[in-house]
Write a structure and sequence with these properties.
The chain starts with 5 loop residues before the first strand and ends with a helix. The chain folds into two domains: 142 residues, Rossmann fold, CATH 3.40.50; 62 residues, Orthogonal Bundle (Arc Repressor Mutant, subunit A), CATH 1.10.10. The protein is 52% helix and 14% strand. It is of the alpha/beta class. It is globular.
Length: 221
């Protein structure tokens, strides 16, 4: 696969942030094989922001559900501190609400983790080409391009969940207790329990095992 990894005579520089080491490693290897420089890595939202400010990458690939401030808040802070950095969100779930939240946070594209390597690189190429052609592609234009390219890999029942409920579901499916979910998302345990009950009601399930199965099918765990 031939991938143009340069703009303005310079190699594209990328930050990769994901709390799953294996996922992060796989993304980094894909980018490096494609001639892209991975200038920094992060495993949580705060570290992603610090690394972005330190390295000012051309692009930042951020997992939506990371510990601490999470990917969306990290995207907002990076957009403010590093306006030249194009932010791309990564998630196991995609829907109109999720894409809208990503755009509002300053992201220019939204990629599902169920996408193929060809699809991922096509979206990243589109972002780079848009910047080259226009001297700064608008978020709306690139997000429109991306939303027509990404794959939907999750079961339809997840469409009923809000972004916060998806975050809670993903953490619960990874084995986190209500207390650790509350600390990670900076919520009260009572709020987390309420989210869990709402999720179960919407999905029509009655156990964490059932929730976990749905989360795995949807790429959230």
């Amino acid at each position: 696969m031939s991938v143009p990894a340069r703009h303005g005579g310079q190699r594209t520089r990328v930050l990769v942030a994901d709390d799953h080491p294996l996922t992060r490693m796989g993304l980094c290897r894909l980018l490096v094989r494609s001639g892209i420089d991975v200038v920094a890595e992060a495993g949580d939202g705060e570290e992603a922001v610090r690394q972005a400010i330190a390295t000012h990458p051309d692009m930042a690939l951020l997992d939506v559900m990371m510990p601490g401030i999470g990917g969306l808040e990290a995207a907002r802070r990076i957009a403010r501190s590093c306006p030249a950095t194009r932010v791309v969100m990564l998630s196991g779930h995609v829907g109109e609400e999720q894409i809208a939240s990503a755009r509002n946070a300053g992201a220019v594209a939204y990629i599902t983790k169920g996408s193929t390597t060809r699809e991922i690189m096509a979206i990243l190429d589109g972002i780079r080409e848009g910047r080259q052609a226009e001297g700064g592609a608008t978020a709306e234009a690139v997000a429109t391009h991306a939303s027509g390219t990404i794959r939907t890999a999750e079961p339809l029942e997840l469409d009923a969940l809000t972004e916060r409920e998806l975050e809670v579901l993903g953490l619960v499916a990874r084995g986190h207790t209500s207390a650790t979910v509350a600390r990670t998302l900076r919520l009260s345990e009572r709020t987390v329990e309420k989210h869990r009950q709402n999720i179960m009601n919407k999905l029509g399930v009655h156990s964490v095992v059932q929730l976990t199965r749905i989360a795995i099918r949807g790429g959230l765990a």
